[in-house]
Amino acid sequence: MELLITALIIAAVLFGIGLYGALSQTNLVMIMMGIELMLGASMINLVAFWRYLHPEAFSIQMFVLIAMTVMALEGAVGFAIATQRFRTSGSVEMEESAELKG
Amino acid sequence: MAAILLTILAPLAASAWIIVTQKKIGYAALTGAAGSLAGSILLFTAALNGAVTQLQFAGLPGMPFRLEATEMAAVLALVVSVITTFIFVYAIGYMKEEKGKLRFWSGITLFMGAMQLLVLAGDWILFVIAWEVMGFASYLLIGTWYWKKEAGDAANKAFTMNRVADLGLYVGVFVIILAGGSSQILAEPVQGVSVVGTLALLLAVMGKSAQVPFQSWLSAAMAGPTPVSALLHSATMVAAGIILLLKAFPLFPPDALFWIGLVGGITILLTGATAIFSEDIKRMLAASTSSQLGFMALAIGAGYPAAALAHLIAHAFMKSSLFLGAGIFQHEMHSTNYEKLKGSGKKLKLAFSGFAVSGLALAGIPPLIGFWSKDAILTAGLQADPASWYFPAVLIGAFFTAIYMGRAFGILWKGHSEPEEKPKKLPWMHLGYLTLISAVIAGWLFLDPLVETSGFSIPKNNIAMISGLGAAFLGLAAGWFATAPIFKTQVWMFFRDNYPVAGGYTNVIVQPFQMLATGANLIEQFLLQSVFEIGKAFLMLARWLANVPDRAMAFVIDQIGTFNLNIGQWSQITDDRGIVEWIAGLVASIQRLGQYGRNIQSGLVHRELAWSVYGMILALIILSLTYL
Amino acid sequence: MATDLLNISPQLIVLSTTVIVLCLEMARLPRAALWALVVGMLTATGVAVDMLGTDTTAFSTTFRVDALSLWAVIILGPATILFALLGRSELKDSAREGTIYSLMGFSALGAMILAGSGDLMFIVLGLLISTLAGMAMAAHPRNDPSSEGAMKYFIYGSVAGAIMLFGLTFWAGLAGTTLISGINNPDLSSYAVMFGFITLVIGIGYAASLFPVHFWTPDTFEGAPVSIAAYLSVVPKIGALFALAQVVRDLPVSLVDWPLILAVLAALSMTFGNVVALWQDNVIRLLAYSTIAQSGYYLLGVIGVGQSTLAIDSMVVFGVAYLLMNAGAFAITLGEGTRLDDFKGMGKRRPWQAVGMTIFLLSLVGMPPLAGFAGKFLLFGAAIESGYSWLAVVAILNSAISLAVYMRIVVPIFFQEAEDGQIRTYAPGTSFVWISTLALTIAAGIGVQWFLG
């Protein structure tokens, strides 16, 4: 049980750092790194719950795979969008992308 | 079955034809109205034989649409189509030289179709549909001359006020449907229709039938063409509210009737006074409409739907003739202001005599149609069980009616005005006008049978009749002989301008919106500064604790000052603003709220994301509170 | 196994269609790709119509085949066709035109999976598929505004998705299962369920553009091509809201007071959307805020799920109505131009389209007897029946405010003179879309019952 709590705390800290990164950084690549941290935290959570609480539940293992898929897909699409943004405007800074507002 | 469809679809088809072909529009509209008239005559003859025509077709899941020509619906459909047809006849003459023909005719035919649908609706959803379409058509019609600022404002006002009141219709209809488990309009009582549901319906009625405090849209709606006013004020639009009450009457719990009567009573008196002090013939008629509809609401509150129905029919004929008469004056004299119309009755003898006949009828002079229906309302007031104030209210209302009609006759007849030109020949207008007036005169022939066909009998009582006659003669005399200056003192302006004290709404509606807007701004600042402020706050707290007694004293003095200031401001606001300002203020507040909304939409993703996370945390807090 | 596959045949047809469309695009045959999409989507819709009335599950209860998921196919299949036709009109002969069609297919597939999800993993995957494809579409034109819009859509989506995933791990981890039918165990810690549910609402609210995760909506819509904006305003939204309905269907109120939180969000979305829309000068932005408000109305149906008999019907009817009126309004905007000024004098220039646009907008207001009225009426009924009368009152008041919003478009159409400028033309696809949706908007308002069979 203590191990579960430890794992959950580590995951929560990781998530917090990721969320802070996503909210505070103004560069698309940095924001994506924050998002990866958040997803990583979810995976730690899932593995911990599976290992220490419900070792019989294979669907939670599946969920880890799904989370990994999410990571991969978002990385691919994110970098595609970043590349295109860099081509059209020469920067992926958020502070410079507020043409559309109101 | 064909008849019921013909009644509704003929005007709608005419409307479509007018929009598409844009040719022969006046005659197309008249054909549509005639079709509707023919359909309603068929329905009426069927109803005389006791046959109820029904039609059911696709609707919402579990709630099919129903059309049903019950006896009452058939009678009302007939009244609507007769009056509308002759108003159309009149309008062909009236609109000949006016602009905006296309909008006028397409709108007015749509309006007629919607009204027939409303009358013949056999289920609540169709009723709501007809109600809303009619509201929209009235918006188009009042704004026929949209290039006049007055007309545009009036249209918006009518529509906004009606939409707000329509809230009640939706809620009320759902209460009825959920209580009865069916969307059909039933004639027998349904268990579980609460007083709240009835009050919700009453709100809708107050909006549509221009009852206090929603009366001002009706006088503003005068900015539209005269035939539109004649139609809105007689058998359609405002009548829809009363028809709603009649259709829902079996469902009302007894406790709720009191409120309906109360609204009616207040409206009779307040708008009656407004009519007396009006300086414009059309505005006088508009205020009078509200007041007369108050009579009907009161009769329903007293538990006598028959009296309300009788007065609804009678009033439809009287008020449409009065408006058509006023329209002829307007056409000839190019004004509706009493000042300009002085003595014009001597020149326009035909118009004046018609106006006089229908005016006398409205005041309740026998044997005209209004005498019989007003008698019925007075009887209802007299015999109403618990509320002893019904009868005096109706009697005073009748007295007021006689005063403002007497005053109008006096102004139109007395005095002297130079004719600018020879009166024009207006064959179409006169045809429509005279037909409706003959109905007013011959009303004693058909009013009783009509009401009886609907399955009601008109209540009669001698005391009511005699006192009503007394009030009518006294009032007419008072109105005729009273001199102009009496009506122009400062005190009366208050009545004339539709009670600007309704500015109380400013406090109820506008202020909360402003506070909400200010609040949104404060929260924004708060979030940005809170981090820095927390440290400061602790420091402040330490200091503050040191001198609590001083602070307390200062606080009390401060509060008393603010309180006095608030009272001052409040009374100033009530003086300055009326219900018109309420609408304007509402719009402005909503726009201001929107401005704050735009500010948080900064276009900077990380900042917006922070807002979303704050929102999530707030939602978490709200939910956690439910566990406490 | 075989019956499982048979049960999800509409989704399988959509999947294979989309793969075929992608192959045709690889062969540089955009026209053929479009036709393949049309045929495939129509087939899937037909199969779904045939299956209506089935109520079962597939793959050990992870996927639900019920009224919601079948109706999602019936609504989203034709929706994809309509928007693909708009896309053809707008993006014809642009580089890699055919990718749009396959992306639309994938996104629709994601939304259909969402609508039938019986497992949290399906929700995560469905959201991912439907929004990632949307991001790629939004970035299609390769210019400054579109890449900005797509970037915002991406960041919002991935942050919201990550938050949702993190919250769901607690919920599913404590419950020991990811099945939606298994995570409503009353013994669960209410705080874990509460956290999980709120994050789920954040993730789903992002796809459905609900307040407070709506911020991307107007920016992305403005940057993206009109047809893509139209697509994003309908397809992922309907899928996401149906998924929310699937979750709350089995969720006891005692575990987490979900109707309350949804009601608050609904009221805020409606009010925010309508109030901010009052200030817009760009028709696309105005419609974007209007979709935020419409999502708020839509939540009324979700709140009724499990408590009101009207709820499922209202969600389906409003879904149909919302698709029709939104597609029509966007189609005419595509034909006329995106600035309010472009609509000036349209009443004289193109009376038919002007009347059509007015009808679409009135339907969005909820004016009877149009489709929007039928949908909203049922939604109000569902809310009142579930005991949320105050929310219904807020919704009705909001529909009064929304009238002012849509009048902002109607007024220049009829009451202002046209400025000199080049007049755009309507492509055949655009004309087909607005005429067919107009006819159906009117027909659906009158004969909803017939629609539901």
Computed Rg of chain A: 17 Å
Order of helices and strands of chain A: HHH
Taking the alpha carbons of the first and last residues of chain B, their distance comes to: 61 Å
| CA radius of gyration of chain B | 28 Å
Written overview of the protein:
The complex is a heterotrimer of chains A (102), B (628) and C (453). The longest helix of chain A is centred in the C-terminal third of the chain and has 32 residues. The model of chain A has no long low-confidence stretch (mean pLDDT 90). Chain A has three helices and no strands. With 628 residues, chain B is an all-alpha fold. Chain B folds into three domains: 224 residues, no CATH class; 246 residues, no CATH class; 124 residues, no CATH class. Chain B has a two-stranded antiparallel ribbon. With 453 residues, chain C is mostly helical. Helix content of chain C is 76%, strand content 1%. Chain C contains 19 helices and two strands. In chain C, a hairpin with a 4-residue loop joins strand 1 and strand 2. The longest helix of chain C has 32 residues. Chains in contact: A-B, A-C, B-C.
Blueprint (SSEs and pairs):
The complex is a heterotrimer of chains A (102), B (628) and C (453).
Chain A: H1 2-24, H2 28-52, H3 58-89
Helix pairs in contact in A: 1-2, 2-3
Chain B: H1 2-21, H2 25-48, E1 53-60, E2 63-69, H3 71-94, H4 101-120, H5 124-142, H6 149-180, H7 195-208, H8 216-220, H9 226-233, H10 238-248, H11 254-276, H12 281-301, H13 305-333, H14 338-341, H15 344-347, H16 349-363, H17 369-383, H18 390-413, H19 427-441, H20 443-453, H21 462-481, H22 490-496, H23 504-546, H24 548-576, H25 579-600, H26 605-626
Antiparallel strand pairs in B: 1-2
Helix pairs in contact in B: 1-2, 1-4, 2-3, 2-4, 3-4, 3-9, 3-13, 3-19, 4-5, 5-6, 6-7, 7-10, 7-11, 9-13, 10-12, 10-13, 11-12, 11-18, 12-13, 12-18, 13-16, 13-17, 13-19, 13-20, 16-17, 16-18, 16-19, 17-18, 17-21, 18-21, 23-24, 23-25
Chain C: H1 2-7, H2 9-26, H3 30-51, E1 56-58, E2 63-65, H4 67-91, H5 97-115, H6 120-138, H7 144-175, H8 190-207, H9 216-223, H10 226-249, H11 258-277, H12 283-304, H13 311-336, H14 346-349, H15 351-365, H16 371-385, H17 389-415, H18 428-446, H19 448-451
Antiparallel strand pairs in C: 1-2
Helix pairs in contact in C: 2-3, 2-5, 3-4, 3-5, 4-5, 4-10, 4-13, 4-18, 5-6, 5-10, 6-7, 6-10, 7-8, 7-9, 8-10, 9-10, 9-12, 10-12, 10-13, 11-12, 11-17, 12-13, 12-16, 12-17, 13-15, 13-16, 13-18, 15-17, 15-18, 16-17, 16-18
